[in-house]
C-alpha cells in the first residue's frame, strides 16, 4: 500500500486539495547512490499552472487583507508542523538527492526552519507604513508569486520564498526541482496541516521547459522568484519579460576565499574550506577558489589536503559525518570533465581525481579533490564545479588577491580567512553580495543574494520580506 506522500508525488496541491494532473506524465526520480528509482513524480502541464494561478488569484482577495497577527500565528503553526516531519524530510532527501541522512536531518531540515524563524522575526518588527516629507509609503502584497526552486538545499530555498511570501500577504505557486520533489510534497502536507487557507499555497510539480516556463510567462503571476543556475535564470527572465513581472533571482557562484598572508592556517582554514565539502560541494556559495600568499601555498595545501583525505564518502542512508554522492549522472559527468580539464591544463592534483572512490562501485560519488597551481585562465577557475573540489591559487600581494577574487562573472559570496580587523579593509573591495569572515556562509538573518551574474534581489530577514512586497506612495493625506 502506498503512503500518502507516495500518492501525493503523483498529484499537485491546488486550492487546498491534492488533485490529478491535466495532461502531465510520470517521471522516475533516480537515487544517486544506487542509480535505481527512488520515487515517481508527476511532471505537470501548463493547464495545471493555469488551475493553480486561478486558485491563487481567488485566495489573494482575502489573504492579502489578513493582519500581521494572523500571519504570525500561521507561520508559527507551520514551524510546529514542520518539526514533526523532520525525519520524513531527511529520509526523502537522502534517497532523492543523496544528502546523508544525519546531515539532511540537521542542516538541510534546519535550514528550512531557519528561513521561517528569520521571516517571523522580520515580520514582528516590520513597518507596513513609513512617513516621509510628502506623505506615506505603504508596503503591500505584490499578488500571485511563482516560485522555482532547486535540488541542492531544497527546503532552505523553498522556505526563503514561501515564508516571506506568506508574511507579506501574497499567494503562490511553487515548482520544486523534479530531481528532488519528495520534500516539497511533505512541505505541502505540512502547510495543509497548519491550516494555510485553500489557494494561498499551491504546489505544481514539473520540469523547467514546461511548468517553469508556464510560471515565468504567465500573465496572472506578478512575480517570479527563481533559484538555480545562471543559464536557467536568464531563460526565466526572458520568459518573464513579456508580462513585465518582477524577476527575483539567486543564481550561480564561484566564491573566493582570500587567506590573509599572516593567517594561522591550522585555525582559519578548516571552518572556511569546510564549505567546499559540506553537502558534497553542492552549494552556490561554496568558496572553492582558495587564494593563498605564494610563500604559504605549500603549507596551505598541506592543511587542505589533510581535510579532504580525512573526508569519508559513503551511503546516504547510513548515519555519520561522511559525504554522499552528487545528485545525478549529468552533474557527475560534468564534475569529472572539470577535474580532467584541470589535469590537462597543468594544475597539480594533490589528492582525489577522476573516477569513483575506492570504497564504492556504483552511484554518482566524487573523490574529494584538491588542486594547487591553479591559474585564473583555467576552466576550473571559472566554471561552477558543484562538487567537493577545491582549487588553490597563489597571489603576490593583497591587491592581486582582490583582483583574482573579483575576476569572475559571478558575485554571490566571498570569504576572508584571517584577522577580522584586517578583513574589514578588504571586504568593501569585493564585488559580492555577501562577505563572510572566518566562516563559509553568511550569519543568521543576513540578506542572501549576489552581484553580477549571481542574480537580482535578496532573500532572508528584512530585505527578503521587502522583496516580496510592492511599495505604494500616498500623498495628500490629512496631517
Automatic annotation (TrEMBL):
GO terms for molecular function: aldehyde dehydrogenase (NAD+) activity. SUPFAM superfamilies: ALDH-like. Belongs to the aldehyde dehydrogenase family. It comes from Sphingopyxis lindanitolerans. Its EC number is 1.2.1.3. Transmembrane segments: none annotated. The keyword Oxidoreductase applies. The lineage of its organism: Bacteria, Pseudomonadati, Pseudomonadota, Alphaproteobacteria, Sphingomonadales. Residues 18-474 form the Aldehyde dehydrogenase domain. It catalyses: an aldehyde + NAD(+) + H2O = a carboxylate + NADH + 2 H(+). Pfam families: Aldedh. Keywords: Oxidoreductase. It comes from the Bacteria. This is aldehyde dehydrogenase (NAD(+)). It is an enzyme of class 1 (oxidoreductase).
Amino acid at each position: 500500500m502506498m503512503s500518502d506522500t507516495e500518492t501525493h508525488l503523483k498529484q499537485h496541491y491546488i486550492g487546498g486539495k491534492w488533485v490529478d494532473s491535466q495532461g502531465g506524465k510520470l517521471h522516475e526520480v533516480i537515487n544517486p547512490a544506487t542509480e535505481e528509482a527512488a520515487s515517481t513524480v508527476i511532471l505537470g502541464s501548463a493547464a495545471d499552472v493555469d488551475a493553480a494561478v486561478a486558485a491563487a488569484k481567488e485566495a489573494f482577495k482575502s489573504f492579502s487583507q489578513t493582519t500581521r497577527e494572523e500571519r504570525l500565528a500561521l507561520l508559527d503553526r507551520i514551524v510546529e508542523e514542520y518539526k514533526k516531519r523532520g525525519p520524513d524530510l531527511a529520509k526523502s532527501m537522502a534517497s532523492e538527492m543523496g544528502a546523508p541522512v544525519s546531515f539532511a536531518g540537521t542542516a538541510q531540515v534546519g535550514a528550512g526552519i531557519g528561513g521561517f524563524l528569520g521571516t517571523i522575526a522580520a515580520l514582528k518588527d516590520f513597518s507596513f507604513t513609513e512617513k516621509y516629507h510628502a506623505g506615506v509609503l505603504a508596503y503591500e502584497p505584490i499578488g500571485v508569486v511563482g516560485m522555482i526552486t532547486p535540488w541542492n538545499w531544497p527546503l532552505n530555498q523553498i522556505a526563503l520564498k514561501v515564508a516571506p511570501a506568506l508574511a507579506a500577504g501574497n499567494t503562490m505557486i511553487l515548482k520544486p526541482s523534479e530531481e528532488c520533489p519528495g520534500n516539497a510534497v511533505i512541505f505541502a502536507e505540512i502547510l495543509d496541516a497548519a491550516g494555510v487557507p485553500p489557494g494561498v499555497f499551491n504546489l505544481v510539480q514539473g520540469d523547467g521547459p514546461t511548468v517553469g516556463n508556464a510560471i515565468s510567462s504567465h500573465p496572472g503571476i506578478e512575480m517570479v522568484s527563481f533559484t538555480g543556475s545562471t543559464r536557467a535564470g536568464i531563460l526565466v527572465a526572458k520568459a518573464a519579460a513579456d508580462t513585465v513581472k518582477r524577476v527575483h533571482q539567486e543564481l550561480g557562484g564561484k566564491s573566493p576565499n582570500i587567506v590573509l598572508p599572516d593567517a594561522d592556517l591550522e585555525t582559519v582554514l578548516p571552518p572556511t574550506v569546510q564549505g567546499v565539502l559540506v553537502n558534497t560541494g553542492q552549494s552556490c556559495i561554496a568558496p572553492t577558489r582558495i587564494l593563498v600568499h605564494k610563500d604559504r601555498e605549500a603549507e596551505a595545501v598541506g592543511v587542505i589536503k589533510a581535510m579532504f583525505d580525512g573526508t569519508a564518502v559513503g551511503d546516504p542512508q547510513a548515519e555519520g559525518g561522511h559525504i554522499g554522492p552528487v545528485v545525478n549522472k549529468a552533474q557527475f559527468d560534468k564534475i569529472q570533465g572539470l577535474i580532467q580539464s584541470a589535469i590537462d591544463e597543468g594544475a597539480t592534483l594533490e589528492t582525489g581525481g577522476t573516477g569513483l572512490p575506492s570504497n564504492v562501485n556504483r552511484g554518482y560519488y566524487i573523490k574529494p579533490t584538491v588542486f594547487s597551481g591553479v591559474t585564473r585562465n583555467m576552466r576550473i577557475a571559472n566554471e561552477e564545479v558543484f562538487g567537493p573540489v577545491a582549487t588553490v591559487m597563489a597571489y603576490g600581494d593583497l591587491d592581486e588577491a582582490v583582483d583574482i577574487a573579483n575576476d569572475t562573472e559571478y558575485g554571490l559570496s566571498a570569504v576572508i580567512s584571517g584577522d577580522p580587523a584586517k578583513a574589514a579593509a578588504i571586504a568593501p573591495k569585493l564585488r559580492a553580495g555577501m562577505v563572510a569572515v572566518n566562516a563559509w556562509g553568511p550569519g543568521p538573518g543576513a540578506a542572501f543574494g549576489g552581484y553580477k551574474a549571481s542574480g537580482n534581489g535578496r532573500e532572508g530577514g528584512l530585505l527578503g520580506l521587502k522583496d516580496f512586497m510592492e511599495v505604494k506612495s500616498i500623498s495628500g493625506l490629512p496631517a
